[in-house]
Amino acid sequence: MPAASTSRVEAFSDGVFAIAITLLVLEIRVPEDTRHLAHGLLDLWPSYLAFGVSFLLVGLVWANHHVMFEHIRAADRPLLFLNTLLLMNVSFLPFAAAVLAAALRDGHGERTAVVLYGGTLVVGGVFFNAIWEWARRGHQLLGTSIDPAGARAVSRRFLLGPALYAAGTALGAAVPLLGLLVFAALIVFYWLPVTAR
């Protein structure tokens, strides 16, 4: 299949991101006991935490996906496949967030939940990098908005992601709260603008 415009890839991806980010709120259950509503709402803090972190993470992946595709002028079949893998990972994140919230709420299985959540982020980072590396291979799918040196600079920043998420996952396997703090810190880091220099 010859390389084609990226407009349909971006439109489909935007739809998946929108659905995934919306599904995150479904894990927050309305308290059944409204006689003690304030207490019941406060008890939902694990769900609020998982929702907030995950919402910002999905939004972050969407924003950087948008920036990435500003430089990708065409999509071939391998790029479509890699993008599909990334979207599959994004679609899985609401489940990982729900597991994390349940473990924090129950006080059991927190380490496993953080490892599942962090592992999901690591895999997503690998797929994200695979899209960019395939697109910049020989500069074949990139446009004139970025030169090879700029593409390498973006690669260096993107490649940090899976390694840093893996470090957070490893820390979370020992101390779950520490892993979550690393994930939250990475949200701040990766929301900073992506520069091509």
UniProtKB/TrEMBL annotation:
Record keywords, A-Z: Ion channel, Ion transport, Membrane, Potassium, Potassium channel, Potassium transport, Transmembrane, Transmembrane helix, Transport
Highest rank taxon of the organism: Bacteria
MF GO annotations: potassium channel activity; proton channel activity
Membrane spanning stretches: 12-28, 48-67, 79-102, 114-132, 164-192
Name of a matching Pfam family: TMEM175
GO cellular component, one term: membrane
Source organism (scientific name): Motilibacter rhizosphaerae
Entry membrane topology: Multi-pass membrane protein
Subcellular location: Membrane
Descriptive protein name: Putative membrane protein
Family: Belongs to the TMEM175 family.
Catalysis performed (reactions): K(+)(in) = K(+)(out)
